[in-house]
Amino acid sequence: MANIQSNGNNTLKDGRNPIGSLAESLLSGISEIIKSVICIQVEKDTFTEIGCYFYRASSVIMELHVNWNTPTNTIEILQALSERVDMAKTFTTKLVKNAHKIQSSELLSVVQQLEGVIRSVGEKLSLIPISTYGNQEYAQKAAKALSKDMKDVSFAIILPSMREEKGKQMETDLYSIDVDFPADNFQERSDILDENGYKSLSDGSSLMGLPHLAQYMEPLYETFFCPLTKKIMDDPVTVESGVTYEKKAITEWFDKFDDDPGEIVCPKSGQKLKSRNLSTNVALKATIDEWKERNEAARIKVARAALSLASSDNMVLEAIDDLRSVCESKMYNRVQVRKIGMIPLLANCLEYRSRSVRFATLELLRQLAEDDEEGKEIIAKTLDISTIIKMLSSNHIPVRHASASLLLELSRSQVFCVKIGTVAGGILMLITAKFRQSSDAFASETADEILKNLEGLPDNIKLMAENGYWDPLLTHLVEGNIKTFSREPLELFLLARTFQAKSVYEHLNKSDCNEEMRMEMASYLGETVLGPDIKTYVAEKASPSLIHMVHSGNTLSRNAAFKALKQISSHHPNTKTLVEAGIMQTMVEEMFARTIHNEPMNSKIEAAMILADILESGLELENFQVSTHGHTMSSDYIVYNIISRIKNSSPDELNINLIRILLCLIKCPKATTTIVSVVKETEVSYSLIELINTPNEELGIATIKLLITLSPFMGHTLTDRLCKTKGQPESLIENQADITRITEKQAVSVNFLAKLPNQNLTLNLALVNSNTVSTVVRNISQIQMSGTRSSRHANTYFEGLVGILVRLTTTLYDHQILFTARTYDFVSVQKLSAVGLENLSRQSAALSRPPQGRKTKILKLVFFRKCISINLSKGEKEISLCPVHGGVCSSRETFCLIDAGAVERLLAMLDHENVEVIVAALSAISALLDDKVNVDKSVSLLSEKHVIQHVLNVVKEHKEEVLWQKAFWVIERLLMKGGDESVSKISKDRFFPATLVSAFHHGDECTRQMAEKILRHLNKMPNLSNTMTFTM
């Protein structure tokens, strides 16, 4: 390149800017170097790195090109740089021409020569005066870092066998700037790009922009730049003096002369202008537009190469920034970015540790998805949606907001809406963001919009409900409408899939869709396990709609409504809401009046179940009419209809619920009289006795409870029916082999016998003749020897057994009964029973006493040791090591729960009514899961005793937060150490996930953290620690 002579005013003789001319020449030369290194196929990584250094140098030269106030001595620096660039161009051009025959030694020589050139360029760049950069401190630091990198550069030709080692030693960051850029500065970088994607350093941009690498593959001419803005023109217009400007810039210039139109001058030439006429420079505009199109295509390719190479975070950032600029200029470029295979590369960028890279990537992906259905689908299919969703919990606000904005854009795509349902915990994360408005209003509002878009798929509505957000489901249940996507084929597909209607294409109309939508939502409501609070909320919102569906819906809709109403009615606080909505009349009509040909019996069973739930809440029977004729539930008509339907031939479920209704009605004096009368005078009394031995244990228990309730009013009648039934009464008393596993049916059975009239000789003789007395005495003895009541029904069972012996003592005038009393020594038995009752009383008093707060672990163990009777054998025991504590243990000396056999007693205490006692028991069990013991052995031992089910029952039956925290801690430990077996057992409990979600949303900080850990163990929430190693 020839030296350029200039006058003292830094202008050439023809008036052109000398620095601008030198810069254009340099940039053209660098463009040729880059084109050459891209074509070189040998040592591709090395020559790509060489091209990157020259590209970065072009950024500095670009600063000089657009800044016409550069100091004079810069010309000499540029001329020196021109010589080095010419040398490099000669080396690379020669290498391209002779690549097919070049030897390794020659290749090594060329690389060494280029290495020397780059070092020399770095030296010259370091000589550029600081004043060149003006107030652009960032540009100054970037140029300084570039100069240092170039001076320290080192390349080497690596044999194929050495490439792997070289890859590990290669410089990883070509942009080693020792400056931390805050997020807000980074976010502003995209704002300083002009429409064409070029960064004007005089406006505060970075020197490290990728646009220039592609830009100078297509030569840039000074005529492209507006003399006023120093930027490439979009709408070039020519004024009277013949100088071309950007139309907007020259118009603003003219506006300055509004007060004195005669003084308008050309800003570049200084020539006075007589007219403000502007002429579009068509030829130049066409040239610039054509150059932009070629340049943008080249920039996209270069950006893709940069992302593929990704030698540093800065390189990735610049590539993404340039792509954002290119995509902003025209929609067509977005299509080109997708077609060139950029989306998978961007997906990789989301895994970077750098927050800046992740933020820029999210913003670019959002830009590619905007106003482009195809773009949304491609991105949704390619990206790992869980990665974006996890960023919603980032503690870096820009990343969090960018991920929310991208998800909002993608949520307008049906592909995304389907895919989100497969992401574990995805919808839960969105719901969590929605309800954290106080901490992040933007994320909350955006998450709300995303969730509204996801409602386009009914399955997503169900997932929202399962994760504690019920409003969408209830809204669609009440209103019936659903937002579908705009494409007609998709709409038809979703409707056909959702409603399972084969003729949906022919019969798609609004009313049908509303009915089907209500049915779908009611079905979801019935299938999903609801917590107590949710049942109340659902009852308030949806009761009228569900009852209306029972009245007027088709069979499928009615079944769905019944399922939902069953869940709601099971929560007694909902009774008032349901009654006010008219549920009593509807259910009575279903049971007694409604008859539809071929309709299954299920509706009557479900109506009876709902009615039983309502009545069990303690509803005043006389206050509500249940028919159009003014009947109440205690009316003779209603009572008779209920009793008459209890038959052996009726379904078990129907009989169970009818008996439940009678157990509620019998509390009303008016109804009691009718019930006793009807049972006495009909065959129902025989039916009830026969139902005692039904295989359905729940029906048997309900029947016996009703008979016990009726016994004070018609005891002798029931005794007569019982003794006339084959196999009775002996079948009511079983020889109990395991006294710790007493069932509820066994307990109510013996109590039924004890409650019947004691002096009924027929029944007493039947008990003696069937050898039942020996079974009673044996069972009493076993309970006394066990020293405790480990089953929740043991006390009731024991009282019933004693009651049976007591009834026999009322008829000792019969010689058979007297002989039996002497044979089994009733006096000793009664004395033993009295001792047992005394011990039971002492134990009950101790357990009922609230545990003392903040006791030491030893004191807690002493407490349990005192309240649990432990019988130790008197003989010598073989000394063995405790599997849990690893040493010699005893209940007396080390307070070992295992040696004391106290685990079973502690589990029994979990059924206690006093919450503080339950908490104390859980605390004692927790001691066996502490890190100080062999937890694996403890988990194995506790699993054998079904601890998981006991603890889950505690969570299900109680809502106290302190109790939940204790139970959650135990469950988490069992999940951590119990492996897949524990996960399987806990996952089978349908109620527990709903409880966890409720605790996650509404509990205090400690409870939320525990619930979150368990949700992660059960794969109900994404595990951030395992899958995202970068700093959120």
List keywords for this structure.
single chain, 1032 residues, mainly alpha, 50 helices, disordered N terminus, transferase
Describe the structure in your own words:
The protein has 1032 residues and is mainly alpha-helical. The chain is built from 50 helices and three strands. Strands 2-1-3 form a three-stranded antiparallel sheet. It starts with 17 loop residues before the first helix and ends in a 5-residue tail after the last helix. The N terminus and C terminus are likely disordered. It holds the Pfam family U-box. It comes from Rehmannia glutinosa (Chinese foxglove). This is RING-type E3 ubiquitin transferase. It is an enzyme of class 2 (transferase).
Shape: elongated
Measured as a percent range, the helix fraction is 55-70%
- Total strand count, please? 3
Determine the number of helices (DSSP H or I, runs of at least 4 residues).
50
Distance between the termini: 52 Å
The fraction of residues in strands falls at under 5%
Kindly name the structural category: mainly alpha
Radius of gyration: 43 Å
Cross-sheet strand order for the largest sheet: 2-1-3
Low-pLDDT runs of 5+ residues are 1-15, 159-216, 484-510, 829-878, 1027-1031
Catalytic activity: S-ubiquitinyl-[E2 ubiquitin-conjugating enzyme]-L-cysteine + [acceptor protein]-L-lysine = [E2 ubiquitin-conjugating enzyme]-L-cysteine + N(6)-ubiquitinyl-[acceptor protein]-L-lysine
Organism: Rehmannia glutinosa
Domain U-box: 219-298
Protein name: RING-type E3 ubiquitin transferase
